[in-house]
Structure formats: C-alpha cells, structure tokens
Queue: 2 jobs
Job 1
Amino acid sequence: MPNQVVDQNNMPEGDNRSSKATMSPYEEAMDALSSLITARIRADRSNKGDQFDVMFDYLKILDLEEPISQMKVIHVAGTKGKGSTCTFTESILRNCGFHTGLFTSPHLIDVRERFRLDGVEVCEEKFLAYFWWCWDRLKEKTNEDIPMPTYFRFLALLAFKIFAAEQVDVAVVEVGLGGKYDATNVVQKPVVCGISSLGYDHMEILGHTLGAIAGEKAGILKKEVPAFTVPQPSEAMTVLEERASELNIHLQVAHPMDLSMLNGLQLGLDGEHQYINAGLAIALCNSWLQRTGHLDTTYLDQNKCLPEQFVRGLTTASLQGRAEIVHDQFISNKSLGQLVFYLDGAHSPESMEICGRWFSLAIEEENQQRNSLNHHKQEISSPSHDSPRKQHTGTSIKSSKQILLFNCMSVRDPHLLLPRLINTCASHGVHFQNALFVPNISVYNKVGSHTSPPTDSRVDLSWQLTIQRVYENLIQFAKGGDAKNTEPNSEEFKEENDKGIRSCENSMVFPSLPLAIKWLRDSVQQNQSVRFQVLVTGSLHLVGDVLRLVKK
C-alpha cells in the first residue's frame, strides 16, 4: 500500500491489498488487529515489546513525534468515571464549536467506537485507510528488537494518527490502564490532566493498596501542566498530592457539579455519581479554554450558572453501556416493553455499589411511573353509569421481576463484587428473583462482532459455576441459612441438562448468552402480566454482547 498522504483531509489512500475471498476489507483489518492480542497475562512485562520506551520508537516510525507535541490534549486517568469524564469533556468542547477527537476504551460492539471525531465514531473508510497506513509502516520497520506493538498500543498509536491527520482542535484521551506505563502516556505536554475517582481494580498490575494504585495513575501528571482530581480517599489523595508537589504543580480538587447549574435539565449520563465526573469535566474544559487562549474568565464558581455551551454539552453527552436502559427490540409485539435491560459495565467493588444504587432507583422510578399511568388509564376507561360496561381485553402489567445477568473476568474477585451489589440493592428494597451467569460472547483473542461462541454444553463453565457458588452462599446467608449447600438442585439439573443449563435454588448457569436471552424471552411469553427488569453488569464485554442481541 502506498505510504503517501493524499487529498484535502490528509487521509491516506485505501488499502490496495487483495482481500481474502471470505472476508470483507473491514473483517481483514479486524483479523490483522486480532493478531496483536497476546496470550500472556497483562501483568507480565518480561517481553521486550512490553517496555514502555519502545512506544517512542513507534512514534518515530509513524512520524508522530511532532504532531503529538503540537496536539492540544486533555489526558484523563482514574479507576472509575474516566470514560464518562472524557465523554462529558468532549461534548462540552464540541458544543463550544471545537473540532474534537475522543479516544476511549474498551469498545462494546465495534472497535471504531474508540475513535470519535466531533462526537461520531470514525467512518469505516477512514478507519481502514489510517489502519493500513499505520499497519504497513510498522510491519516494514519493526524487527526482533522493536516488535510489532501489542493490541492496545497499536490502537493508541492509531488514535494519535487519526487525530493528527484530521487536525482536531482538541484530543480528549482516556488512559487504558494505570497511567505511568500506559500507551497514551507518550503525550509529553498535554494542556491539562485529570484523575477521576480511584479504587481497587487491576491490582495484579497496579498494586494492592490505594496508595500504589494512585502512584500509577499519577504517572500521567507532567511538570507545569495543570492537574485536577475529584475528592479521593485520604490514602490516594496523599500520594497524588506528593507526586504533584514533586512536579511543582498545584493539584486542584474539582467538586461535584451542583444540579442547579443545569437550569432545570438533567445530565446526559444517568446516575448520581455522574455529578462527580461532570464537575471534573467542567474543570478540565475551563482550564483547556484558558490555556489555549479561548477564555478570559473562569466558570469554576459553583454559585454561577454555566455557559449555555457547557449545559448543552453536559445534557446531551451519551455513552453506551453506562447506566443505560434498553428495551428488548426483538421480542414479539405482544410482549413489547415487558423485557427491559439495565446495562452498566461496573466491574470494581466501588462501582458495583454505585451500579446497585442506580438500578434500584431507576426501577423504583419506572415502577412508580407505570403505576401512575395504569391508574390514570383505569380512571379514563372506568365506565360511566350511563354507558354499557366493556370488558378490558388488553394485558396489563401487574408486577415486576428483577433478574441479575452477570459475568466478570477471572482476574476479578466475585467475593468482593457481588456482596457490594446485592447488599446495596437490598438496602433499597430490591431483591433479585433469579441470577443468570454466562460466559461472554466476546473472545479475547479475536476482534469483531461476527465471532460465534460455542453454544453447546462442552463450553468450559468452571468460572461461571464458581461465581454461582459465591452468589448462592450470599443469598443463603441473607436468608439465615448456613450457606453450605450450593450444589445444583438435582431435579432442576436433570430437567435442563440437555441444554447444558446448571440450576441452583436462586440462580442458573447458561453455556451461552444467547441461551440466557432466549430463556428470558420465553419467560416473558409465559408470564404476560410480569415485567422483567434485568440488570446486566460485571463486565463491559458482557454489556456489549447483550447490546448486540437486544438492540436493533
């Protein structure tokens, strides 16, 4: 493929290679990208390619050193809320009239979700052109000492190539993992840095204390570059402040945004915790505008109303898979609206608690609205004394049922995740009538939305069965039992054995997600008066897989 840059958009020529007979050009790119996924565990840094300094060799190969040094970057790390913070930040600056680039991770359905220009994922044509431009240069120049970049590193390099070629005014960049050694940390002079809420996640890499984790996240801070964070646990805040002091910068704390600043509107992203992320985004945008010469005054005074562009950006921001409510769009018309999925990619103990609170409040609000609507309909349809009485033939929703659909990666501890979720929901009066545990459709060594998982009983369900035992113990304990008998109910197990489903008293393990979704749809058909409210959480991969199956 030619390496030259063409046309007014600096977009490289499309790939000239002959596609494989059974693959589309996009699928061929996904196949190439998949080859960069390593089998080694993430904490293993023994390979030469894992040394952070090699990133700068890649920048030279791709001629990105100068473009990145000129790029006006907002760099954001954190455990929870960094993706939401970046989404709010990009939306605000786009509504201020700037040409924006946004790089986030992970994607839920299509890898192009990670790269957004002016709020829209990069089109397939541009993606393929930039992908092969980077791929071919790296393939030509890499060797035994400088191997091909790993999966996320390649995606980060691709993001910088896209943003440079598209000449964005601002690049909002979310750290992938940690900070100090993250691929995005090749940005040496961002305009401003932000660190969202910190907690326990990726401990096998970042450390087992909040201080150690904070130290890794603080690796994105740069000398003479303003830095903002949110209120943090004291152990984490101490480390952040120490690092900032070493760099001779003042670490400023952005307080949660006051709802009154939105002039009666609501944030585009749902959940009480989003006011924390919105507060950080406001501070980052304010600093970026000031440092790039676009703002003379400050909008950080919480007693003042926000500019119209800020309000519009905050209230129109959207992010799939975070506190998202989706009705099953493939269920039969007569059951439409009776199967509702509440999706949140929470996967740390702290975010589980936030997720449980959001779900509980969301279904409470929805049930109140439905009850009010049904009451209003009954009043309207009540026959008068002068009119003949008519029999109501429609099916009315009399009750709701809460179901948990869950999976998490094996590096995470369900003993830490599930209690935070279950106890938070219980404190709001929400109790799951059933829990479904499934393997993800997404496979970690393959990129693309067309990969079919095994759907028979031969799939390895040992991890899902482990999660099920943890869950059953929790429920038994909550009921006052001894939490010892967590083996599958023999009668139920025999009944479902031909489908590979393992049932316990309070939960089921399915060999595939499509089977679990089918079970939910069948249950709705058999219980026309019940509204099924399904919380999907524990893994962003799972959330993405569910969206593929239930959203048109």
Note: The first strand starts at residue 5 and ends at 6.
Job 2
Amino acid sequence: MVNIHDVAARKRQEREAKLSTYRKGRIHVPSDAVDLSQYPLSKLTETERIIVHCDATAIVDLIRKRVYTAQDVLRAFVKVAVAAQDVTNCLSEVLLDEAFLQASKLDQYLEETGHVIGPLHGLPVSIKDHIKIKGLDTSSGYLGWAYKTVADSDALVVEILRNAGAILYVKTQTPQTLLSLETDNNMFGKTVNPFNRNLTPGGSSGGEGALIACHGSPMGVGTDIGGSIRIPAAHCGLYGLKGSVARLPHSGLLGSHDGMDAIVGCVGPLARSARDLELFCRIMLDAEPWLSEPPLLEMPWKRDVANGDGLPAKLVVAILFDDGVVAPHPPITQALNTYKHALARAGHDVIEWQAVDHQDGWDLIAKLYLLDGGAEYHETIRAGGESEVPQTEWILKQAQGRKPYTPADIFKLNSEREAFRSKALAHWNATRQRTVSGRPVDVILCPVAPTLAPPHNTTSWWGYSSHWNLLDLPGVVFPVGRFTATASATYPPLPHPRNDVENFIHKQWNPTTYDNAPICLQLVGRRHNEEKLLAMLNVVEKAFKENAL
C-alpha cells in the first residue's frame, strides 16, 4: 500500500520542480507579515507591473494591437503566479513549459498573418483543479485520486478556451471533497488569503481566488454548487459569476457524486472586472456548446442585453439585509446601506427584500448535497488512507446519523425542491405590490456571506450563497472596498442571536480579526437572465460611483 505521506510529498515535489525553473529567487516574507498581497509583485519590471494590472479585456486588445506579445504577457503573470504560490499555496498542477511553447506559436501566427487566432489570443487563463485538462492529473483534493485521474481529454470549457486562443498555464487548489467554502486538503495543504494570511480565501475555488487577487492570473475558471465561485470572489475582492444551470458548459469535470442531479453546479469565471465576466460568457456561448453538451439550453449570448439594451431607465432593487438566520457582521450591513442610499439618490426604486424560508432552504439543500448520507465522500477519503480536514467534518455532520435516502425519499425531496422554487418565484413576483413603479423587483442586492473572509476552519453558514443555488438563480459578486480595523471606529451592536449558528458567528465579530479583508456584495437576478444581471451590475456600480457620499 502506498504511504499517503509519500503521495503528498511526491505531488508537492513535482509541483516545486516545475515552478523552480521559473522562479527568480524566493521572496522573503517576514514571519509576522499578515498582508501578503504585494509580495508577489515585488520582482516585476515596470512593464510587467503594468501588464498584470490590466484586466483580461485590455490584455487581449493590447496583444491584438501588438503592444505586447503573448510571451510578454505570460512571462509577467507566471512570475507573479510562482510567487503567489510561495506565499498563499494556491496552485496544484503546473504546465508552464507547454504554455510558453503555445505563446511562441501564437506570437508567430500573429506576426505571419496579421490576425489573432481567436478572441482570447494570448490570454493566460487559470483553471480550477477538478476541471479536466488533457494529460494533467485531476486529483481534486483527494489523495486517493492522485496519479489515477490523469485526464484523457479536455473539459468543454477548456476546449473552448483553447480554440479562442487562451493559454492554459496552471491549475489551482481545491478542498478535499470540493463541497467546502474553504480550501484545504491533505495533498497540498491549506490555501491562505493574500490580504490576511490568518483568513481563508474561501472555497471551493479558493486557489483561483488567491491567485487572481495576487495578480497571478487575469481570469480563472471555477465552479459553484453552493457558493464556490462567489465566496472566493468575495473573500479575495474579485468579480465572480454563477449562472443558472444549463447555461454555460459544464461537462468534463471530475468530482464526487458524478451523475447526481438533485442539485447541479455551474462553471463560471472569476476576474478583476465586470466586463471580463461578460467576455467569458460571450466566448463560451458564441462557441455553441449545446451542440457538444446535450443538457445545455440553446441560448446564444445576447450581447446587446448585457450592454444594457432593454433595461428600464430606473431599476427596482430589493436589498436583503438579514436572511432571518444569521445577521451579517457590521462591515457588510454598512456596505448594503451605502449602496441603498446611493441607489436611491440615483433615482432607483429601492425596497427591502423580505427573507423567506432561508433556514428551510439550507436544510433542504444539505439533504440534496448528501443524498447518500455522505457515503461516497467517506469511502473516497478512506480509500486514500487519509483523514477528513475540518471543513469536510463540518459538512458531513449535516448528514450524521442518517441513512442514505431511498428512491422514494429522493422523489419526495425533488418535489420539495420544486415547491420551494415555486413559492420563491411567487414571492418575487408579488413584490410589484410594494414598488413605486408597480413592477416586480429587477434584482436583489444581498450579502455573499454573513462575515468577511473568516479565520481558517470556521465557515459555518452558507445560506447567503447556497440559497440561490437551490433556486437556480444567477448571482454575481462584485468588490466594494477593503475593511480597515481602526481603534476609534464604533459599530452598532449585533442583534440578539436567534440560534446556535448565529451565536457562533456573532461571537466571531472582532474588527481586528478581519483587518484588510475585502468587502464584496452580491446581485441576484431571475433565472437564465445572466446578460440582464451583468447589465444591472453596471448600473449599480455606476450609481454608486456617482452618488456615494
């Protein structure tokens, strides 16, 4: 039997060997340093610094105009990615030699033809570990899968990226089981938040969050079944989109519970700008992925709608301040209030969203996640000879002492899910009775989580993100600032806790704990209205920019 420590050591040594060729000396980080975010940028040239501060949309334009070559761009991001790995532990698999070969070919093609190979020509894109890249291991945070899950083909999202001219260069860390909003496994260890190493970057796309926050990638691909794109985006100060199921390509992923469709995840982008989210979706759907993946809906990307065509002059925005289970910490409530006042000053119709059944929603989705009582997760962990990391223990406790559901049980749960969605849709439609315009709410503005990025191993309420997975509504996360703990600041007291989870989370509130953590919020739209959601994000950000006091 292979010793699990040997497997982990071998994987780490192989990763280090591939990175060492490209490392220009290790960066010294003082042991007492908390904010790690600037260290990966410390060895860049001025030109490289300019490149890595560009968003993906700007990069592809600059390459097309021959301001920079694909090799220039890749070299800059690789330099940061290697350093970001050193300080945050964000990478899993590495394919830098292949990436530079591809960049050289792309530069030669542009030089010889005068044309780009596709709309993402030369753009480095990072990929979450469980999304297949042909020839690379897809261990997905499980020791037992290491060296046994080398992909024999690309995931559809990867195939589309390659055809568009993107350069794949690294895969990023995921947690054990993937069903976690932190990033920790027994193979590579824990990923830390670059803005405060004592806090989590989120999960399960936490490697993506940490890498992009360090400027080590201009665009990353994640997945989300309970918050796994939106939580890392929020904890790392980024933009992230979870669409509705069957909109964006989702085939070619490896994870537990393949074939389970009671609740389905979504592939989506993490990026540094709102327009990059639109770029990703447009590239995906212009490729007509429904011709390759049967479950996808034939819904071409409506670029005019994403650009705002058809939006009412003034939006109806509902703000969810409290889901009725866990009231968020003060910095989040303050951000919601700031946006409330800015939107009202801009003339938008702003009402309060009345939370309905969020605890019941969590109880239901937790059952849908663990239809087999967690048996497959337990078996996979046991087969690798490893133990559960703390957040795995937490999620599996949601099914503790329960037998796997029978087919009859699952039919009943599916019926409950559809009834839950119907009730929520009726609730949304009924908001027309409370709006000035007489129209239902266009979009919901809400927290992404009840806390800013929390200390490692303490995430304990998913409801602000998983609720929208249960309803299959698209959600987009956007940054609004960074929290600074100041001795003179005062904060309103938190309400009396209504349950044990809220009591635990409220006891966590201490400003110094969250110092330098990003503050992000979330917009939620109607099902399969991703274009309109991104258009409304542009309106909301514009209103804030022009009307915030």
Note: The mean pLDDT is 97.
